[in-house]
Specification:
single chain, alpha/beta, Hypothetical Protein Yjia, Chain: A,domain 2, 2 domains, five-stranded antiparallel β-sheet, about 25% strand
Length: about 300
C-alpha cells in the first residue's frame, strides 16, 4: 500500500477548524477517499455531528477525552488510527486536533513504528481567530506551540477584526518566520498552498501518478548544538530532503528557526524562551534512524 498523506489542522477553540474541514471535504471528497480524525478534549464530540451534516462521503474517526492531548494517551491514538486505516484505506487523512493538542507529538507518532509505513506528514495548518487571538489567556502558550510548527497560519474571522490583521501577522512572524500566512472569513479560502518544494503532496493538487514512498521524521531533544555544527548537519541532509523545518536549540541559550528545501538552507534567530529542538523532515532517501544518529553525533 502506498503511503497516505496526513494533514493536521490545529488552532484554539472556536477559531474555525470544523468550518475549514467542511470546506476541504466539500472540495475533495468527490475526488479522493477522505479519512477524517476528530479529536476533542470533551467526552462528547459535537463537531463530529456538525461535520456529518455536509452530506459528503467520508469516513470519520472520533477520538474523545483528549486522545491526542498528551503524550500519555498517544498509544491509544496510534492503535485507533491503525485500525481506521486498515478498515477504510483512505487516499488522504486529515486530523482536526483539539485546541489543546501537541501537534509535534502527533507528527512524531506517525513518523515512527508501524504507522510510518502507512502514512507521512504532508502539511500542518494552524487556524487563528483574528478577533480573539490575543484573548486566549493561559492557553496562549499552547496556541503558540501549534503555530511554531505550522506550515500555514490561517487568520480567520478577519471581518471581525476592525483594526485589521497586521499586528497578528507581526506576531506570527516572530513565532514562526517561515509560516505562510493566509487570511479568510469563515475559512473560505483556496486550499492550494503554492510553489513550495513539496506542494505536489498537498491536497489542493490531485495527482494520478503514484505517490512516492515519502518518510516523515521528527527529532525532539533538549540537546544544544553549535551553530556551525547545525550548518554542517543541514548541508548534509537538506539535499536529500523535500523539506526540513523546525526549531533548534543552540549552545548559548539561543533558538533558531530552520527551513530547508533541497539545497536552500535558511536559519533565523527567533525571540524565544527555552524550547527544545523540534525538527521535521520529509524525504525518501534516508530513515529516521540515520537522521537521528547523525544529529546525536553533533
Amino acid at each position: 500500500m502506498q503511503k497516505i498523506p496526513f494533514h493536521i489542522i490545529s488552532g484554539f477553540l472556536g477559531s474555525g477548524k470544523t468550518t475549514f474541514l467542511k470546506h476541504i471535504i466539500e472540495q475533495i471528497a468527490s475526488k479522493q477517499k477522505v479519512g477524517i480524525i476528530q479529536n476533542e478534549f470533551a467526552p462528547a464530540n459535537i463537531d463530529g455531528v456538525e461535520l456529518k451534516k455536509t452530506g459528503e462521503n467520508f469516513d470519520l474517526l472520533e477520538l474523545n477525552n483528549g486522545s491526542v492531548f498528551c503524550v500519555c494517551l498517544l498509544g491509544s491514538f496510534t492503535r485507533s488510527l491503525e485500525k481506521f486505516i486498515d478498515e477504510h484505506q483512505p487516499d488522504v487523512l486529515i486530523i482536526e486536533a483539539s485546541g489543546l493538542s501537541d501537534t509535534t507529538s502527533i507528527a512524531e507518532v506517525i513518523s515512527a513504528g508501524s504507522l510510518s509505513e502507512k502514512i507521512y506528514m504532508a502539511s500542518n495548518w494552524c487556524i487563528l481567530d483574528a478577533q480573539n487571538f490575543n484573548k486566549v489567556g493561559l492557553m496562549k502558550q499552547r496556541v503558540s506551540h501549534q503555530l511554531r510548527m505550522a506550515d500555514v497560519a490561517l487568520i480567520n474571522k478577519t471581518d471581525l477584526a476592525p483594526r485589521g490583521t497586521e499586528a497578528i501577522e507581526q506576531e506570527i512572524k516572530k513565532i514562526n518566520p517561515f509560516a505562510q500566512i493566509k487570511r479568510s472569513t469563515f475559512c473560505n479560502i483556496d486550499f492550494q498552498i503554492g510553489e513550495g518544494a513539496i506542494s505536489k503532496f498537498y491536497f489542493g493538487e490531485i495527482k494520478t501518478l503514484p505517490r512516492p514512498e515519502v518518510n516523515s521524521m521528527v527529532i525532539k531533544t533538549t540537546k544544544a548544538v553549535k551553530r556551525g555544527a547545525l550548518q554542517q548537519f543541514l548541508e548534509k541532509w537538506a539535499p536529500k530532503s523535500y523539506r526540513i523545518k523546525g526549531y533548534v536549540k543552540l549552545k548559548g541559550a539561543t533558538t533558531v528557526a530552520v527551513q530547508c528545501t533541497f539545497d536552500s538552507i535558511e536559519i533565523i534567530e527567533v525571540e524565544s524562551d527555552f524550547h527544545p529542538t523540534e525538527l521535521i523532515a520529509l524525504s525518501e532517501h534516508f530513515t529516521l534512524r540515520e537522521w537521528y544518529k547523525s544529529f546525536k553525533e553533533l
